[in-house]
Amino acid sequence: xxxxxxxxxxxxxxxxxxxxxxxxxxxxxxxxxxxxxxxxxxxxxxxxxxxxxxxxxxxxxxxxxxxxxxxxxxxxxxxxxxxxxxxxxxxxxxxxxxxxxxxxxxxxxxxxxxxxxxxxxxxxxxxxxxxxxxxxxxxxxxxxxxxxxxxxxxxxxxxxxxxxxxxxxxxxxxxxxxxxxxxxxxxxxxxxxxxxxxxxxxxxxxxxxxxxxxxxxxxxxxxxxxxxxxxxxxxxxxxxxxxxxxxxxxxxxxxxxxxxxxxxxxxxxxxxx
Length: 273
Ligand SMILES: C[S@@+](CC[C@H](N)C(=O)[O-])C[C@H]1O[C@@H](n2cnc3c(N)ncnc32)[C@H](O)[C@@H]1O
Ligand SMILES: O=[N+]([O-])c1ccc2c(c1)CN[C@@H](CO)C2
Description:
By secondary structure, the chain is an alpha/beta fold. 35% of the residues lie in helices and 23% in strands. The chain has helices spanning 2-16, 22-29, 43-56, 94-104, 115-124, 132-142, 176-179, 183-194, 229-238, and strands spanning 64-68, 86-91, 143-148, 167-173, 197-209, 213-215, 221-223, 241-250, 264-272. The strands form two sheets. The chain has a seven-stranded mixed β-sheet, with helices on both faces. It has a two-stranded antiparallel sheet with strand order 6-7. Residues 29, 34, 43-44, 174, 178, 208, 211, 214, 224, 260, 262 line the site of [(3R)-7-nitro-1,2,3,4-tetrahydroisoquinolin-3-yl]methanol. S-adenosylmethionine is lined by residues 17, 20, 69-71, 73, 76, 91-93, 96, 149-152, 173-175, 178-179. Keywords: Methyltransferase, S-adenosyl-L-methionine, Transferase. One of its GO terms (molecular function) is S-adenosylmethionine-dependent methyltransferase activity. Pfam families: NNMT_PNMT_TEMT (PF01234).
C-alpha cells in the first residue's frame, strides 16, 4: 500500500503544479511587503542575508553550484554566483524554466525586475549598489543551463546534467516541502538530491515551517508538508547530512498576506558526509 500511496501522492502533487503561474507567484512572494528592502523585518532581505553569509564565510568552495527547484526566481544564486563559476538552475515546469531563460536572454521577457535584489546583494558584499549591472553580467556568465528536475526520482536530474563527481554545493528554496505529499516523501527527496552532491559538499536549504498550503496562482491551491524545526533536523540527519547551522524567521502579522499559511521560514547550512 505504501508504494501505491507513494505513487498516487506524487502524481497528485504533479497535477497540482499544472496550474502554477510564475507571474502570480512572483507577485505574491517577491514584491512588498515580503520583499521590502527598506524593512529590517521583511522576509526576502532575511533570506538574502542568510545566503550571503553562508556563501562567504570561507568553507563553501568549488566549481559547480546547483539550485534545485529554482522556480521563476533568481535570488537564491545572487551570492553563490560570485563563488562558483558554474551555476545550474533547475525546475519541474517548463513555464518556470522559460521565465528564467527570459531573464537570462535579457530581452525584457520576465515578470519581475530583479534590479533591487541585485543592488541589495551588492550592498551586502560591500559594493556600490550601482555594481548591480556587473553582478547581473556575472550571473548571466556563470549560469550554464536551465534543466528539468524531479526530486521524487532517485536520479532527480538527467544523467548527463552533472559531472561524475557531482555538484560542489546545492541550494534549494521552498521546494521539497512544497512538492512532497508527506514527511516521508520530503525525507526521501532530501536523500535523492543528496546523491547529486559530492561528499563534503554543502547544502543550503530554505523552506517553510508550519505551512499546509500556498497559492501557486489565482485559485491554484497547492498542499505543503507542515514542518517544524525538529522534523527538518531529523530528516537532514536521516539523509546523510551534518547540520552546520539552522536559522529561523518567524513571520510578523503583516507578512501574512493570504497567499499561504506559512508561520516561519528556516535556513539550513549542512554538509554531506
Ligand atoms: C514554492 S516553488 C519554489 C520556487 C523558488 N525556489 C523560490 O524560492 O521561491 C516550488 C517549485 O518546485 C517545483 N516543483 C514542483 N514539483 C517538483 C518536483 N517533483 N521536483 C522538483 N521541483 C518541483 C515547482 O515547479 C516550483 O518551481
Ligand atoms: O516570504 N517569502 O519570501 C516566501 C517566498 C516563497 C514562498 C513562501 C514565502 C511561502 N510559501 C512557499 C511555498 O510553499 C513559497
